[in-house]
Amino acid sequence: MDAIYTAVATATHGRDGRAYSSDGKLDVQLAPPVELGGNGQGTNPEQLFAAGYAACFASALGLVGRAAKVDVSEAAVTGEVGIGKQGEGFGLKVTLRVELPDSVDQATGRGLVEQAHQVCPYSNATRGNIEVNIVVE
């Protein structure tokens, strides 16, 4: 694959530090959530992954919707990223909740969501690596 764009971000001090992008558009304080023993006073990698996956999936849905001439511009995608013990380390699981506009019938919407899951770069990166569940609401 030839990259069209490459995002560059740096994290310091792991989950209890800071993450920032090379262009300065992202600069966030990181802190583990209370559930992982942290103070919860910053964002965390799971929240960032959830936001990125949700945004990317929504774009993929828009792409396949336009190709099918179905307006899904008002769709909302919510990403949920769970982290937990897996073997010796930790693992992730994802749920994507896709809320389709009322103007899109369920069968058409589900078909578009399935197509989006095939073209979304995050879906392609996670396929076969972590559990991803998609819920169409």
TrEMBL record:
In its UniProt record, which GO terms are filed under biological process?
response to oxidative stress
Question: What SUPFAM superfamilies does its record include?
Answer: OsmC-like
Q: Which Pfam families match?
A: OsmC (PF02566)
What NCBIfam families would the database entry show? organ_hyd_perox (TIGR03561)
Q: Which family does it belong to?
A: Belongs to the OsmC/Ohr family.
Name of the molecule in the record? Organic hydroperoxide resistance protein
UniProt source species: Streptomyces albiflavescens
Q: What is the lineage of its organism?
A: Bacteria, Bacillati, Actinomycetota, Actinomycetes, Kitasatosporales
